[in-house]
Amino acid sequence: MSETTSKSSASSPARARSHRHSAEEARREILDSATRFLQESDFRNLTVGEVMEGTTLSRPAFYQYFTDLHDLIISLLRDVETVMHQIASPWIEGEGKPIAALRESIRGVVETCVQHGHIVRAIVEAAPLDERLEQEWQSFMRRWDDAVEARIVAQQQDGLIPFFNAQRIAKALNSLDVNLVVAAFGRHPHDDPSDVLETMYHVWSGTLYGRPPHALTAKNR
Amino acid sequence: MSETTSKSSASSPARARSHRHSAEEARREILDSATRFLQESDFRNLTVGEVMEGTTLSRPAFYQYFTDLHDLIISLLRDVETVMHQIASPWIEGEGKPIAALRESIRGVVETCVQHGHIVRAIVEAAPLDERLEQEWQSFMRRWDDAVEARIVAQQQDGLIPFFNAQRIAKALNSLDVNLVVAAFGRHPHDDPSDVLETMYHVWSGTLYGRPPHALTAKNR
DNA sequence: AATGTGACTGACACCATGTCAGAAACAACG
DNA sequence: CGTTGTTTCTGACATGGTGTCAGTCACATT
User: Fold this and answer.
1) Residues in chain A within 8 Å Cβ distance of B172
2) Which of A203, A204, A219 to mutate to test the interface with B (most CBs of B within 10 A)?
3) What is the pLDDT at residue A2?
4) Helix runs in chain B, H state only
5) Average pLDDT along chain B
6) Residues of chain B with C-beta less than 8 angstroms from the C-beta of A163
7) A159 to chain B: nearest residue by CA?
8) Strand C neighbours with CB under 7 A?
9) What is the pLDDT of residues B171-188, one digit of tens each?
10) CATH code assigned to B23-65
11) How many other CB atoms sit within 10 Å of the CB of residue A14?
């Protein structure tokens, strides 16, 4: 064998053959490749072959870590959930002044979605195509809905929010958020985050607390 | 030819072989079969073969009338649009008292979606999978968004609605409607239409006009 | 009856998927 | 170091839905 002629020992640029991963390493490598792909393209163009090309592994190796493309998306969904849940805590947990906390929570959601918007979009688009993923997505959203509903009910009992069917409104508002986020940050170029924040805040506060404060006295005939 | 023996002339039950359609007849037959299928199942299970089984034609015949399953969905979208547009006219066109008209328009939308919810659901789920369908769907929604935006702007100038970015709010509210309708009437069993109506009305009126009228004085601490 | 036109179909090539038997790397043990 | 066991990995294959095409079939016109 030749020593230092054409290729250096282990740092060959793309052909890093002859090296095994631990199970976790490989998973991460695949997930990263998929994420990278989704930054540039859509779920509809995602294919097992494409994903594995961005990898040191071959196509069949994919099936040792995921049963499916949908299964891979479920993993991404899990990752997103852990990030998101604590972001929205201010209003959800009832910390500080309700309306200010609401704004703060929405701000957090918008901000993290600027980063993970592509993934959220992929999840939303892929969910209807697979039974299991669909269920995971529904569960994810239900946890969200329940949290919001609980907060609404609590503030209804404090007289801060008028009475109405908290469950349905919670569901409606959350689904609206998903739509806005996907539309705004699901693909390049992104919309202006502060515009999205304003829109969300307007609808949420208008629906829950009444007319948004800053518009109350403006031009109200 | 036998006169009145076993089968009456043209109404043979299922095996209507040896009979050609006009172009329009065949199209309708295919569209009907697809619609029937979507009543019972999802877009993810829809396949060209399945559709054509509900038909007197063979699978390849499909491609004489549609380039694609997505193309077929586009036809269904067109059908839905013509039905829906005049339904929402009361508020859109500014007829009568704004808030009552809003309620009336929403009522109409909900009502027609009770019938065509399955199709709307199929459209929404299929749209991200095909470039052309995606564009058609976006155009459809944009026409809707523009109409709502125009109405908001008109009523802002009349002092009925406070000033805010009408375009973004219109888009948000419309996307919310789609979500609610698909969730409520996209598959069996359907939700209660009046619940859906209340939810939509609550969010719309809260966002546009301020706190919903009937909750204004109730239990507002 | 002969011919032209458009509706229709059987058979095929294509492509992504998911599987499987076995190869290749690595570790443990002698 | 061999040998053996274990885990990771891959080449090659079977499957199923898609879209195409050359050719057939029903019907109208003459």
Assistant:
1) 176, 179-180, 199-200, 203
2) A203
3) 33
4) 23-40, 48-53, 62-65, 69-87, 89-92, 98-126, 131-157, 166-185, 193-208
5) 88
6) 215, 218-219
7) B221
8) A 17-20, 47-49, 59-60, 63, 67-69; B 20-23, 26, 56-61, 64
9) 999 999 999 999 999 999
10) 1.10.10.60
11) 6
Confidence class for position B89, pLDDT limits 50, 70, 90: confident
Q: Say which of A162, A206, A215 has its CB closest to residue B219.
A: A162
Contact B183 A162 (CB under 8 A): no
Rounded to whole angstroms, the Cα distance separating A20 from B159 reads 69
Q: Residue B214 burial by CB count (10 A; 0-12/13-18/19+): exposed, middle or buried?
A: exposed
The set of strand D positions with any atom below 7 Å of a protein CB reads 7-12, 17-21, 25-27
Q: Residue B55, CA: closest nucleotide via C1'? A: C8
Domains in chain B: boundaries: 23-65, 87-210
The one-letter amino acid code at A98 reads: P
pLDDT at A7: 30
Identical fold for domains B23-65 and B87-210, yes or no, is: no
Tens of pLDDT, residues A40-98: 999 999 999 999 999 999 999 999 999 999 999 999 999 999 999 889 888 999 999 99
Distance (Å) from the C-alpha of residue B18 to the closest C-alpha of chain A? 38
> pLDDT-based confidence at A218, cuts 50/70/90?
very low
- The CATH class that applies to domain A77-211 reads mainly alpha
Residue of A72, A199, A181, A74 whose CA lies nearest to A121: A181
Residue A6 pLDDT > 70:
no
- Report how far residue B65's alpha carbon sits from residue B88's, in angstroms, rounded to the nearest whole number: 31
Using 50, 70 and 90 to split pLDDT, how confident is the model at A210?
Answer: confident
A23-64: CATH topology: Arc Repressor Mutant, subunit A (1.10.10)
Q: Which fold has domain B87-210?
A: Tetracycline Repressor; domain 2 (1.10.357)
Q: Nearest nt to B47, CA vs C1'? A: D17
